[in-house]
Amino acid sequence: MGYKKKLALIGLTLEGLREVAAECGMPAFAAKQMAQWLYEKRVTSIDEMTNLSLKARATLSEKYTVGREVPIAEARSIDGTAKYLFEGVGGRDIEAVYIPDRDRATLCVSSQAGCKMNCHFCMTGKQGFHGNLSAQGIINQVLSIPESDKLTNLVFMGMGEPMDNLNPVLDAIEILTAPWGLAWSPKRITVSSIGKIKELKTLLDVTKVHIAISVHSPFPQERATLMPVERAYPIVDVMNLLREYDFAHQRRLSVEYIMWRGLNDDIRHADGLARLLRGTNSRVNLIRFHAIPGVDLKTTNESAMTAFRDHLNSLGITATIRASRGQDIMAACGMLAGKAKEHDK
């Protein structure tokens, strides 16, 4: 008989842990006990779950493991940003980025190894798609970085399109926000998407997390050359969906807009963006392009970014220029590529 890999407990919701308890002949309340050990006390072994009986721990250990996996490698930027490489799927490892900033400490997590969306300007998309992460693979990034206990915010802006892996992302959000999980406020979490409409609507309906939408051009034909997904999910339709939700109070809607010199950084584009966003209560994050191999787009200059921001603000659209972090370690926006696994020869 071959070796059978044990199943991970982290990444399971309370419902999933109830199923484990029933399977192992444990009382139903053991599910909450396991959740407390996994997510509040953050144990790394079943033996540490000391309010479970020795028999229960032994039975549990036959088939399950906690499932925590430490980073394979790390890189640190001169600005304090840290990039961590984790075991991925489909022959491609994945990356998470820790970004400290005064009283905030944000983790940018990946939801897929690679990405199907093939945006022209993104290194992740250039790698192709290798597979979806499980909820364990997502939550492990949160629990297993050295700065885990310092985190104040989480953004699903790493490798992959979260709405293309919706159920594990929803399970991860439940674990992050539930009283039996990490008990975070959903206001500490932002999910970025290119706008898969059906899945985005589900996310909006079943969670209260903040939303960030990748736009990058207000003009459909131009956006389609940058983001092929425009043909399947037109940004006009995405914005029509978002207008149905309240972003004027607790929940926030952000628009991500990478700027390229001579392509989308003039006042005509600012006017078009303002028209597109009318009635959405969104704010705009203007993002510097970080050059990647094989892409001939150029970073816009500071004066053009400032003029673009000021024009949007004059039209009643709140716009800010996002500070770039971690560029020296290939950790900035659009630069995450993961790493192909090295196999023994």
Brief overview, please?
The chain has 345 residues and is an alpha/beta fold. It folds into two domains: 7-65, DNA polymerase, domain 1; 73-340, Aldolase class I (TIM Barrel, Alpha-Beta Barrel).
**Shape, per Cα inertia axes:** elongated
- The CATH class of the largest domain is Alpha Beta
Beginning-to-end CA distance, first to last residue: 25 Å
Order of helical and strand elements: EHHHEEEEEEHEHEHEHEHHEHEHEE
Radius of gyration: 21 Å
Fourth CATH level, the homologous superfamily of the largest domain: Aldolase class I
User: Under CATH, the topology of the largest domain is which?
Assistant: TIM Barrel
Report on the structure:
The protein has 345 residues and is of the alpha/beta class. The protein has 2 domains: 7-65, DNA polymerase, domain 1 (Orthogonal Bundle); 73-340, Aldolase class I (TIM Barrel, Alpha-Beta Barrel), CATH 3.20.20. 31% of the residues lie in helices and 21% in strands. It contains 11 helices and 15 strands. Strands 3, 4, 5, 6, 9, 10, 11, 12, 13, 14 and 15 form an 11-stranded mixed β-sheet that branches. A two-stranded parallel ribbon has the order 1-2. Strands 7-8 form a two-stranded antiparallel ribbon. α5 packs across α6 (166-177) and α10 packs parallel to α11. The longest helix has 13 residues, at 302-314. The chain is elongated. The model has no long low-confidence stretch (mean pLDDT 93).
